[in-house]
Amino acid sequence: MDGMVRVALEPTEEGRATPGTPAPPPELAVGDAFDALVRDHRARIVRTVALVVGDVGVAEEVAQDAFARAFASWRRVGGYDAPDAWVRRVAIRDAVRRSGRDRRRPEREALAGTRDAGTGRGATASDPAGGVADHLDVVAAVRDLPPQQRAAVVLHYLDDLPVAAVADALGCSASTAKVHLHRARRTLAARLGEEPDDDPR
Amino acid sequence: MTLDDRLRSGLRTGAPVVADDPVTTATIASTVRQRGVRRRRRRQGAGGAVLALAVLTGTVVVVGPGGDEGDDGAPVVAGPTAPAGPQRVLDALAVTELEVVCGTPVDGVQVGVVPVSEPPAPPLDVALLASGAVVDASAPAPVDVTVVVADPLAWAATVAPPADGRAVVVPGQARRLGADPVFAAEAAVWCPGAESPVRAARAVTAVGDRWQANPVEVLATPLADGGEPAVTVVGRPGAELVTSPDVLLAELWNDVPTHVCRSAESSTFASFGDPRMWDAAVAQHQAFQAQVDRVAQGGRVAGPPTLVAHASDRSMALDASDVVIGLHAVTWYPAGSLPGLRADAIGRQVVGVDVRCLAPDGTVRASRVWWESTAVWSPIGGGQELWTDHATVAADVQPDPGFVPDELLKGEVPGVVVPPPSPVPADSTTIAPTTDDSTSGPVVESTDVPLGRAVRAVVGTGVCGPVAEVLVDEPIPPEPATSQDIRTGSGSVNVTVAMRRGSFEELVLPVRAAVDLASMSTDPSAARVVLRVRCGSDPSTTYDATVGLALGYEGEPGWSVVSVAGVPGGWVS
Which of A81, B291, B399, B426 has the most beta carbons within 10 angstroms of its beta carbon? Predict the structure, then answer.
């Protein structure tokens, strides 16, 4: 329950306007600015969320809800340095929440867990499809992670967010985010037959 | 390659392709903006707003007299972040009673009337927050407040069985279907005589600013003279819901006992406007139902039809004035059990979705059937909510002991004849056949497929005919992708295309495939297939995709000639 309530829509460090940040120029129509936000960032957010929720349709829904919330609060959100980060944060938290409460998830994950990940190791000249198999393995392995870890991995490896930004997006401390990433990497290394590298910073 | 490298590469390549063309973006932005505005808009007597807002927020929302568009005056939205929570909103609305007609089955929540003079107890708030409930206070205060829950079936199961011939209906949330203003609303319906509630869902749509969806009531007559119960679904007072006793439209029933389904001549939702539309819709539905019945009676399905579905094809060219009236469902076919539908070698369960769109003049704008593989593909018990590219499917997946599709691909199914791959000219879009002993079936290697670099194609067979799979392992240049990209060439061949990414089990949602049947005939040995893979997406995005092409031939027993692009459908026996 705490998790539900904690999914507040208040922006945190990344997206919040810094002191003295000028508001968007009044001559810039809200619609234009909002459209630009959607145009520039929707695809990436959907893509990220899709890897968290495991379903593009749900991801689009999550993203659209996040954008709708941004629009509803555009007077505030539009003034942030990075409104896209705000939207991403809302979407990611929603995605994690949905994943966590999805009672069907264990079944799906159990199914996914039965697959033999770790067989694909990249394409070769003689086996060009090997790369496909490896991608499938990676995605399948990531999808088996718990929602928080899954989101952390996606944000870090797909969106190239540093640990601090991952923590911000997840609404947790940097140390907690590190723990998520550490555990995720340990799990993924085992699944994919790799030796874990050093944890990201 | 280190773990980090592998994860980066795998996720970036394995991430889904997200269509992001300007038209799509503009549509989405516009939709979001409209929804954002609507969120603040005063709505009186429009119970359907509850559904719309459920979609909007997924959290506690109170809709009430909040002023006109753009007016940020009175609070109309309450949620976890509202300054004072729902109570302030209820106060502002002068709500005197809060009738919780349904909620989530969590501790401390009671069904009944909660006097607002006694502020909702914390458990109520907690319940609302937990359930993602929506409170509809759209009518002029004082109002009844309807809580729409995320899991109506679970909640309905906690209430007493229906009595006096009146069904228990627990409205659920609506879910957006694609970018079109079409939503799937669901509810739990507990019919008299049934042992448990069942999930019902329907597609709802918005035309202009009117949300044409409303919570419903199901009125059911008791069993009389040993006959089947008659069930009528009506809208709530004030709802823009038209009830027709003769139409089964825009409706899905899942898990409804068969005898209820079969008596559904008077059982279901009808909606949306012009009665002139009904005749055409009824005719289509009847034809459709006949197909379903035939399948069921023909013993081709392991078990009775257990799934009906609603869908919105987001790729359909829906105008704002169009009304989606028929989103019909179909049966849940175990792979391989129904030749010709989708019994290909991929081995997934299939869902057929019939989407019908009527123009305001009553003509059928589109009538097509998409057969899509589903997100969950193996036998799993229990209710499943599945999403496909074009459909939201609420399904109760039945275990299928015969779910062993690999044999099909390997050509090991007795009696299945594997047609040899036909010679294909090696032009720029041709997959030339070769042989590869490492696979179980004939293999064709691509020589040059400029759209997509098909590096490997496997031609096998399903019970419905040849099956081609093309692995694409190169960035595919962006191309406009619409449903029109899937066509039949001669009209004599039915084609089903599914693209997957990530695994065999997942459908690639935004990716479209275009299949031109340059030359087909009813003779499988003479079949020639040219695959063109088009993907409308971010050109910087790379992805892997598998194209499954299932071909069936008119005249082949059991083959369902579905209606595609206006080609009349029918059954071949």
Answer: B291
